[in-house]
């Protein structure tokens, strides 16, 4: 999904993850505005990448556990930017606050995502 939606990570630290995504045919819904699902995919991506960046990659994986989103404003074209900051960094979960904005820093979507940290040998599927 990362590549299909044109997402790009532009900043990655322990306390901040930033990624961009174009508003294009791949991310618009039927009526021509940014699809809420595309915003949620971007939000979960920055939270998951931020978590994965901080765990033992040899033995653990980061998987989305819960996400919510409020879609504040529509967007027809251009670029949106997701900025994620951790609210909680635990041993088995991390909780992230994500704000998605447009080029003028207007809020498009706000989200909170909980990411589970699970042992690789317990991952099913």
How are the SSEs ordered, and which strands pair?
Elements: E1 8-13, E2 16-23, H1 36-52, E3 60-71, E4 78-89, E5 93-101, E6 107-119
Antiparallel strand pairs: 1-2, 2-4, 3-6, 4-5, 5-6
Q: Helical element count?
A: 1
Distance between the termini: 18 Å
Number of strands: 6
- What fraction of the residues are assigned to beta strands by DSSP? over 45%
Radius of gyration: 14 Å
Poorly predicted regions are none
What is the approximate shape?
Answer: elongated
Give the structural class: mainly beta
Question: What would the average pLDDT be, to the nearest integer?
Answer: 96
Order of helices and strands: EEHEEEE
Largest sheet: 6 strands, antiparallel
Brief characterization of the structure:
The chain is mainly beta. It has one helix spanning 36-52, and strands spanning 8-13, 16-23, 60-71, 78-89, 93-101, 107-119. It is 14% helix and 48% strand.
Describe the fold and architecture.
This protein is mostly beta strands. The chain has a 6-stranded antiparallel sheet with strand order 1-2-4-5-6-3, with helices on one face. The longest helix has 17 residues.
Throw out a few tags for this protein.
mainly beta, 48% strand, 1 helix, elongated, 125 residues, 6-stranded antiparallel sheet, single chain
